[in-house]
Design a protein that fits this description.
Length: 299
C-alpha cells in the first residue's frame, strides 16, 4: 500500500517540480522566494505547487501586487521561505545522521544545527542582505529572531512526524530507501503547518517579510527596508510593487514618514518577543521529550 502511495507521490512531485521550476521565473517575485518555491516543491511536491499557484503565481499580467496582498498569502510566503531553507538543512542532517547511525540526541542536534545554520546564514541573512543595505552582519542581526522562532516550530513538527513514522516502517531510516525521502517530505509538510501560525505572528508584527513583487527594470525591493518597517498591506505600490523609502533616493511624503513611524510602533516590545521565544523553545523541547521517552530507538 505504502509503495503505491510513494510511487504516486514521487511521480506527482516530478511533474510539480518541472512546472514550478519553469513557471516561477515568469512570476515577478524576489529571486530568493523563487528558489524557495523550487526547493519546497522538491520535497512537498504537488502541495507546494498548489501553494505556489494559490499564493504567488501572477494570474494576469500586472496583477501580482494585488494578488499577493492578502495577509494569509504574505504569511504563506514567509513560511515557505522558512520551510525551504531550514527544511533543506534538516533533511540533509537527517540523511547524514542515518548514514552515521547517530543516536537520537546527536541526530537531533545535527539536524537543528544544519537547519538553523543554512536557513539563517544563507537563506535568510545572505539572500535578504539588501534589506540591511547590503550589510551581511546587520542582516544576520535582523534575521536571527524571526529565524529562531520559526525554526523551532518547524523542527518540532518535523521531529514528531519523522521519528514516529520511521519507527514503524522497516528500512525507512536508510537514505537509500525511498521511504526515507517520502517520510521526510511528509514531515516537512507537517513542520510547515506547525510554523505557519508563528510566521503569521512574525509577519503581522513586522518582524518578517512575506511575498514581494519585482518587476523587470525595477530596483531591488529589499533595498532600504528592514523587517521592522514592513507593513504587509503596504508592501506593494504602483511603482513595481515596491514601497518607497529614503534609501531609494525618491521623495517621501509626510504621510509616508508617518506610516513608517507607525509601522515601527507596531513592532512588539522585547519582553513580548522573549515570551514568544520561550514558548517556541518549550514546544520544541516538548516534541523532543515525547520522542525521547516514547520511542526505544531514540536512546
Amino acid at each position: 500500500m505504502l509503495d503505491g502511495v510513494m510511487l504516486l507521490w514521487f511521480g506527482l512531485t516530478g511533474i510539480s517540480v518541472l512546472f514550478v521550476a519553469i513557471d516561477v521565473w515568469r512570476t515577478p517575485e524576489a529571486t530568493a522566494l523563487r528558489w524557495g518555491f523550487i526547493i519546497l516543491t522538491i520535497f512537498a511536491g504537488p502541495l507546494a505547487a498548489f501553494f505556489y499557484v494559490l499564493g504567488c503565481r501572477e494570474p494576469l499580467p500586472g496583477t501580482h501586487e494585488a494578488y499577493v496582498a492578502p495577509i494569509w498569502k504574505q504569511v504563506l510566503g514567509s513560511t515557505m521561505h522558512c520551510a525551504s531553507g531550514d527544511g533543506l538543512g534538516i533533511i540533509t542532517g537527517a540523511a547524514i545522521a542515518s548514514i552515521l547511525t547517530l543516536t537520537f540526541s546527536l541526530d537531533f542536534t545535527l539536524e537543528y544545527v544544519l537547519g538553523f545554520g543554512f536557513g539563517w546564514l544563507f537563506f535568510q541573512a545572505f539572500a535578504m542582505k539588501d534589506m540591511a543595505g547590503g550589510d551581511y552582519l546587520k542582516s544576520l542581526r535582523m534575521t536571527f529572531i524571526p529565524e529562531f522562532l520559526s525554526m523551532n516550530l518547524l523542527m518540532a513538527g518535523m521531529t514528531i512526524v519523522s521519528k514516529f513514522w520511521m519507527a514503524n516502517v522497516d528500512g525507512s531510516t536508510d537514505p537509500a530507501n525511498a521511504s526515507f525521502w517520502f517520510i521526510m517530505s511528509m514531515s516537512l509538510i507537517a513542520g510547515f503547518l506547525c510554523a505557519y501560525p508563528m510566521n503569521w505572528w512574525l509577519v503581522t508584527r513586522h518582524l518578517k517579510h512575506g511575498m514581494m513583487t519585482v518587476r523587470k527594470g525595477s530596483p531591488d525591493p529589499h533595498a532600504g527596508h528592514d523587517m521592522a518597517s514592513m507593513n504587509p498591506d503596504d508592501q506593494h505600490s504602483e511603482h513595481g510593487g515596491m514601497s518607497m523609502s529614503p534609501g531609494d533616493g525618491k521623495h517621501v511624503s509626510h504621510d509616508t514618514k508617518h506610516d513608517q513611524h507607525h509601522d515601527m510602533n507596531l513592532t512588539p516590545p522585547f519582553g513580548t518577543i522573549l515570551a514568544v521565544g520561550a514558548l517556541s523553545v518549550t514546544i520544541l523541547a516538548g516534541a523532543v521529550v515525547i520522542v525521547a521517552t516514547t520511542l526505544p530507538v531514540a536512546d
